[in-house]
Amino acid sequence: MLGEFTQLLGCPEASLKQKFEAWGQKPFRAKQVLQWVHQRGLSDFHAMTDLAKPLRERLATQFPLSDPVVISDHVAADLTRKWLFEVGAGNGVETVFIPERKRGTLCVSTQVGCAVACSFCSTGAQGFNRNLTSGEIIAQIWLARSLLLGEAKPSPIRLAQAAVADSGQAFDADEDLDASAEADGSHTRPISNVVFMGMGEPLQNYEATLEALTILLSDHAYGLSRRRVTVSTSGVVPMIDRLARDCPVALAVSLHAANDDLRDRLVPLNRKYPIAELMKSCQDYLEHAPRDFITFEYTMIKGINDQLDQAKELAALLSSISSKVNLIPFNPFPGSGLQRS
Predict the structure, then answer these.
(1) pLDDT of residue 16
(2) CB-based contacts of 29: which residues, under 8 Å, 6+ apart?
(3) Within its chain, how far is the Cα of 293 from the centroid?
(4) Of 169, 89, 168, residue with least CA distance to 129
(5) Cα–Cα distance list, 25 to 36, 42, 52, 78, 193 (Å)
(6) Domains 5-62 and 70-329 are alike in CATH topology
(7) 70-329: CATH superfamily
């Protein structure tokens, strides 16, 4: 996506420290490089003036930047912006920025294609190609930030902090960030939230997803709070349990049906991890989650899952778990044979 520079983007602080120690460098250099790359958006190592010249030259040799290939860049009427970034071998992944009045959300992909093969999903219909690396996941955020706010500017979160600090108010990472959009004059919202809801099943690419989460949450990188990062899953139960232990961020579950017969048809993964197991895992996750609810996503498909009795069945299923339901209009695609409610 960005050449060897992508590897650096996906390198957590602990791994970067080990690399620098192997080079005979002090471990604190890792923090400095992370701040330059993620917080300031720099890719020119020669501009990293607090690093010794030999280290800058080695970094430039080890992690050269290639120009990204943006296959498409589309802005909708509501200012939602969708990019298709090339990731090699003619493959592309979607990244979407959703500006709202009180936040800016970036939706990132974790795989090229998807193996879950939900019947209502165009990505699943394409089949699975490969997992993205942690660097390719973070590169979507790095590129989106550069395209939205201009290269070599502070990261959106840091911009938001600076805007509030200049006003004399205390900054809370969980507060709304309107002021920062006005501060940079770009007429765009900063990236205040990141959701792993693009192409692919994040929990079937667990290690790369976990590394990307670590970088997003690092104070020396993007500094996002766990409340502002969401992982969406179709219900890979063992990995939901593992995420609860390793890095409990906000959780969203692609449910789409409240009984196993229908969910088996819509989400084939349900045949392996049925609804009862999924609900138990979600209930357990709440003990670790940064929010006091789990979001359940429900795509509305005409004549399939949109009847009144099905709504009552959904309400009964979720009655014992703290939750929010996100009703999503079905997005028709050729060959699906399905219609929007």
Answers:
(1) 96
(2) 20, 51, 55
(3) 19
(4) 89
(5) 17, 21, 10, 48, 34
(6) no
(7) Aldolase class I (3.20.20.70)
Residue 326, amino acid = N
The amino acid at 236: V
200 — alpha (psi -120 to 50), left (phi > 0) or beta? left
- The domain ranges of the chain are 5-62, 70-329
Res. 150 pLDDT band, cuts 50 70 90? low
329 contacts: CB under 8 Å, gap ≥ 6: 299, 300, 340, 341
Per residue in 28-64, pLDDT (tens digit) is 999 999 999 999 999 999 999 999 999 999 999 999 9
Rounded to the nearest 10 degrees, the angle between the axes of helix 156-166 and helix 134-149 is 50
Q: What is the pTM of this model?
A: 0.89
Closest CA to 7 of 198, 190, 136, 144: 136
Place of tokens 């990236």: 191
The two tokens of residue 289 are 């989650």
Query: Could you tell me which CATH number the domain at 5-62 has?
Result: 1.10.150.530
